[in-house]
Amino acid sequence: MLDENCVFCKIIRGEIPSVTVFEDEHVKAFLDISQTTPGHTLLVPKDHITDVFHLDSETAAKLFSYVPMLAQAILASNTAIKGMNIINNNGAVAYQSVHHVHIHLIPRYSAQDDFSIHFGDHTKMYDAAKLNAVADKIRTHVTEVPHA
């Protein structure tokens, strides 16, 4: 089911133009209009799903199964590519600007290619007991392990 107001749903329906890289009955992959780096591609499911928190394991398995193929195609398209960031943002605080689950495949050409991610190092704030307390809270909410 598609959302009539969602930008990505409009792209899927052909109401907004896009440059398609790959499409089948399940997904559409198209170039991000911002092109953070050349080849920046978005992968979206054809059903409107807001974010990973609303994604069932079957749809997730299907969606994420396309990532290696697309990453390999992007890599093969340009010998200057040295690496790739594969990112899924969920919620505004995590920089999700379009609320239709999507995966960014961002080719990396150098450490100075106008894209960065910062992981703060808070190692000194956590000992084994604190880490286990965090893990215990998460474990109490794990309800099932999906199997392929």
Automatic annotation (TrEMBL):
Residue intervals of the HIT domain? 7-117
Motif Histidine triad motif is found at 100-104
> Keyword Magnesium: yes or no?
no
Q: Active site at which residues?
A: H102 (tele-amp-histidine intermediate)
Q: Does the keyword Lipoprotein apply?
A: no
A single Pfam family, by name?
A: HIT
The highest taxon in the source lineage is Bacteria
Q: Which GO terms describe its biological process?
A: nucleotide metabolic process
Keyword annotations: Hydrolase
Any GO MF annotation of the entry: hydrolase activity
Q: Which PANTHER family match?
A: ADENOSINE 5'-MONOPHOSPHORAMIDASE HNT1, HIT FAMILY PROTEIN 1
Protein name per its UniProtKB record? Diadenosine tetraphosphate (Ap4A) hydrolase
